[in-house]
TrEMBL record:
Keywords: Nucleotidyltransferase, RNA-directed DNA polymerase, Transferase. This is Putative reverse transcriptase domain-containing protein. One of its GO terms (molecular function) is RNA-directed DNA polymerase activity.
Length: 96
């Protein structure tokens, strides 16, 4: 039973990683290169980063981390902005 659960979680994580990789350009289309801009909060939010509520479990946490890192990469955010912008996606239990 534990092996089946482990394999199911592993498959879900892999599927989520593939989905995130397919969204690497913030849904602007595969043939359109994003215009390089300063990483502002408004630009960060245009990529629709997912929120983290703190009750999503391990798969939800990994999904949030990967999606948030992808947005940071696309928007070329500085380290200082990454902390502030990531914290802005926390909601509910993640804030306590």
């Amino acid at each position: 039973m534990n092996r089946m659960i482990h394999e199911s979680v592993k498959a879900a994580i892999q599927a989520e990683r593939e989905r995130v990789q397919n969204e690497a350009n913030c849904a602007e289309g595969p043939n359109i290169a994003p215009i390089s801009q300063e990483c502002t909060f408004a630009n960060f939010m245009k990529c629709s980063p997912i929120t983290f509520r703190g009750n999503e479990g391990a798969v939800g946490l990994i999904r949030w981390i990967e999606k948030t890192e992808m947005v940071f990469t696309v928007r070329k955010c500085t380290k200082a902005n990454k902390v502030v912008f990531a914290a802005a996606t926390f909601q509910d239990q993640a804030l306590t």
